[in-house]
């Protein structure tokens, strides 16, 4: 059963989607990450269809073939986009799957609209706590820098991220936040063929996509410090960091890591920290976040604010390590498909 590419009109967006499987199958909605599109789910859509599920993968607002209206982005707006999409498709409840930014959106949708989501799967993503493992979260807040970087290096960025191009082409800080990628030519991963690379290069060549990507990171992730406070009912209070505060950390002359005031963890959703999603939740994580390329570990990682956020929000949580880096649905499609199908059937 093939994957169809088509459009659906919601109340405010013309959304491009990839769909597969029987229309009467249980609906599974998959939300892509940055800097990808719904194309990233091609392996999962095929596996879901073969198993009798109805798979729906929309391009997020501002990406792929979906409208790019230019409005300032918030997590609440992106979650509403998902609900509007479900309404337009006539889907009352679904299983929601999200990777990277798609996981941020999926979390917000599930935590605010739990009656619409039956199960939740998060793939190498996060809920509300940002970690220093991703310095680009701070970089995006610095005015003009991301704009200059993408204007100069949009093609090179994709080729470095996906195809093993020498990362030195992207330069150094403060313009380039991806310095953790080693310089030198690396072999192109076998999960990215010519068609996939061409798709991602083309999809990220549109300046409107850069504009929306910047809006996602700059405005939808308002960083806060979480401070212990036993006088509060929740035991904590929050200090809002302005965009300039965050930018100043990134632009510190010695690097933000050398600034003693730099908070290694920031929370961009303190309004959600008291909430829980009580239904079955799966967390698949790779070496980028979990620190290992080992496959099949079942323990829920813990020990710092980033890792601890998952148990905080999901009382019915199960986790699996995946033997890949970050783009797990493509890197390790077989194992990810197996985990998703077992999760959907209740066997995991």
UniProtKB/TrEMBL annotation:
Record-annotated AB hydrolase-1 domain positions: 27-328
Keywords carried by this UniProt record: Hydrolase
Gene3D superfamilies, per database record: alpha/beta hydrolase
InterPro entries: AB_hydrolase_1 (IPR000073), AB_hydrolase_fold (IPR029058), Epox_hydrolase-like (IPR000639)
One MF annotation (Gene Ontology) recorded for this entry: hydrolase activity
The protein's name in its UniProt record: Unannotated protein
């Amino acid at each position: 059963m093939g994957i169809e590419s088509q459009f659906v009109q919601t109340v405010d967006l013309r959304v491009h989607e990839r769909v597969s499987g029987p229309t009467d199958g249980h609906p599974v909605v998959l939300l892509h990450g940055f800097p990808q599109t719904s194309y990233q789910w091609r392996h999962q859509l095929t596996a879901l269809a073969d198993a009798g599920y109805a798979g729906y993968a929309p391009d997020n607002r501002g990406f792929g073939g979906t409208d790019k209206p230019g409005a300032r982005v918030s997590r609440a707006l992106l979650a509403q986009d998902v609900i509007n999409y479900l309404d337009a498709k006539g889907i009352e409840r679904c299983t929601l799957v999200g990777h990277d930014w798609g996981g941020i959106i999926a979390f917000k949708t599930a935590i605010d609209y739990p009656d619409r989501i039956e199960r939740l799967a998060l793939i190498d993503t996060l809920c509300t706590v940002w970690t220093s493992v991703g310095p680009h979260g701070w970089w995006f807040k610095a005015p003009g820098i991301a704009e200059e970087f993408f204007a100069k290096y949009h093609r090179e960025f994709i080729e470095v991220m996906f195809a093993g191009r020498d990362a030195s082409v992207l330069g150094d800080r403060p313009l380039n936040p991806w310095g953790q990628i080693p310089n030198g030519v690396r072999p192109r991963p076998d999960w990215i063929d010519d068609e996939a690379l061409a798709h991602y290069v083309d999809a990220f060549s549109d300046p409107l996509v850069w504009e929306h990507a910047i809006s996602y990171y700059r405005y939808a992730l308002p960083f806060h410090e979480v401070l212990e406070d036993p006088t509060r009912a929740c035991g904590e209070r929050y200090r809002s960091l302005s965009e300039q505060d965050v930018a100043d950390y990134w632009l510190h002359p010695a690097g933000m890591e050398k600034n003693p005031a730099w908070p290694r963890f920031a929370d961009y959703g303190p309004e959600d920290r008291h909430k829980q999603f009580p239904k079955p939740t799966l967390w698949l994580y790779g070496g980028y976040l979990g620190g290992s390329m080992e496959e099949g570990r079942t323990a829920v990682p813990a020990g710092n604010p980033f890792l601890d956020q998952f148990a905080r929000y999901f009382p019915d949580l199960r986790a699996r390590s995946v033997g890949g880096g970050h783009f797990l649905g493509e890197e390790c499609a077989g194992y990810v498909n197996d985990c998703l199908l077992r999760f959907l059937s209740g066997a995991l």
